[in-house]
Amino acid sequence: MSYSTAQALRTVTLDDVRGARKMLSGVARTTAMEGSRHLSRAVAAPVHLKCENLQRTGSFKLRGAYVRIAGLLPEERAAGVVAASAGNHAQGVALASSLLGVRSTVFMPKGAPLPKISATREYGAEVRLHGQVVDETLAAAMDYAHETGAVFIHPFDHPDVIAGQGTVGLEILEQCPEVRTIVVGVGGGGLAAGIAVAVKALRPDVRIVGVQAAGAAAYPPSLAAGHPVSVRNPATMADGIKVGRPGDVPFGIVGELVDEVCTVTEDELSAALLLCLERAKLVVEPAGASPVAALLSRPGAFEGPVVAVLSGGNVDPVLMERVLRHGMAAQGRYLAVRLRLTDRPGALASLLGTLSAADANVLDVSHVRTDPRLGLTEAEVELHLETKGPAHCTEVGQALRDAGYTVIG
């Protein structure tokens, strides 16, 4: 179904968001607003973090899912609901359905992280694994809805869902009434649209900035074209905002009320996630860290006070390890180096002594002694090191060369 901008604006109003908030009383938490001295110094303006990563189910998705399901007619509830998601929406639908006594079936990709699959089941949903990508999973869920009569709960393209997400905006205005800029991640656009409806109705002077991953940025070309367009093969670690096409309903609202949509790189997402963990002591998924990435990549571009919405914290531990290492590398705090040395007793110990003297922390060592590429008396060593920054990386490399080692990568 397509919506013009005017129709979309009529479908979600401030009254809808206020009604959603009453509906969510006792269900969704009013999540914390935490100040960040480090980010405030970095962007030269007061920065506050809206911690939806601490929401029930670990993201804002519960808000919209609950409002949507609570608004179903009795006969629709009796038919049950179905959803398709790789994680956050799945958990939101599962818990909302359980709280409302509605049967739920959630389709998830076969490659979805096991913690997210387990959590969705524990919240009460029947989980069905189908397809390798979300588009295949979505098609399966739609077929199931057609065959069984279950109501499909879209993750972002419905007015009730947008109204539920908009309750985040009401909380922001109450917790930080002096706010001048709100920065929020954008996938399909439901959260940004909901916040925009609530905030612009009460504080039209507040600037709202959406953030997309550069590899999955459908909104900039869509806004330029004046209608939703698809990005082929979206690619980003931030699966929470990895959406190939804007939703029709949120697109109209975002186009009218959101002041800017910018993009961030994978390196910037990694660095932001690392900062949230180290400085704010908050576990945040890459999509949730996207507003922080935007602040770090464009210091001075945001009028303060700034509120950055940390939309979720459901990060797969395996991905977390990879992202943290990537973030450390992007900051020059993680160095992978490969070198050759003479294969003799004590050679590896001497190498480690050189690194210790250079104050580099060895995280991992791979020692290869038998390889057709190596000479009879050669060995190859690959080291993963923790360093103190770009300058220290240079110092470590020079220390190795000064000690006579041949660095080959």
Automatic annotation (TrEMBL):
It comes from Streptomyces calvus. The keyword Cytoplasm does not apply. It comes from the Bacteria. GO terms for biological process: isoleucine biosynthetic process; L-serine catabolic process; L-threonine catabolic process. Its EC number is 4.3.1.19. Its cofactor is pyridoxal 5'-phosphate. PANTHER family: L-THREONINE DEHYDRATASE CATABOLIC TDCB (PTHR48078:SF6), THREONINE DEHYDRATASE, MITOCHONDRIAL-RELATED (PTHR48078). This is L-threonine dehydratase catabolic TdcB. Keywords: Allosteric enzyme, Lyase, Pyridoxal phosphate. Belongs to the serine/threonine dehydratase family. NCBIfam families: ilvA_1Cterm (TIGR01127). One of its GO terms (molecular function) is L-serine ammonia-lyase activity. InterPro entries: ACT_dom, ACT_ThrD-II-like, Ser/Thr_Dehydratase, Ser/Thr_deHydtase_PyrdxlP-BS, Thr_deHydtase_catblc, TrpB-like_PALP, TrpB-like_PALP_sf. Residues 336-409 form the ACT domain. Pathway: Amino-acid degradation; L-threonine degradation via propanoate pathway; propanoate from L-threonine: step 1/4. In the native structure, TdcB is in a dimeric form, whereas in the TdcB-AMP complex, it exists in a tetrameric form (dimer of dimers).
